[in-house]
Amino acid sequence: MIKKLLPVFLIVLAACGGLFGGDVLRQKSAAEPAAAGDDAHAAAQPDGTAEDAEGQVDVTGGHGGAKHGAAEKKASSYLRFPSQFFVPVMHGDRLDGMIILSLTVEMPAEEEETVFRQEFRLRDAFLRTLLIHANTGGFDGNYTIEPRMRRLREALLKTALDHSDGVVTDVLIEDIARQDSA
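^ Flagellar basal body-associated FliL family protein, sequence as received from the core. Prediction below:
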């Protein structure tokens, strides 16, 4: 009986150890930025400061000057499209694969509501841009090389600027993958 229960007990013990180790590492990684300096400490304060995607902290607090005379950095907001973009890759009449992307747009925090209201219009415009990119060979071969990705980012940003009245400041490609047809 003990020989049958010992493997189950060891599996449960290993799972508990893994959960505990993950929790300790998560707490340790969350504590490191707080110890890194004043900027990270300011991000943890509920005084209206904001942190951008790069971990940079806006410490101006809306009162005009940043630390050490650095340029004032405005807080950004992000709209992550809730569903992925699926773009067929065609060659002639044959479906060769599917590109799957996750996109997020960056905008000034004060313009967040404006862009959120235009989410569906932006999604439609992005899909049209992605289809044009696919039909012109943008996803053929090694589509992740920098010149091709730069061209895609520029096309997506131009589309976002055109359809958001210049409010969007950047388009972030979070995930990109190609699934070839069998």
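The chain is about 45% helix and 25% strand.
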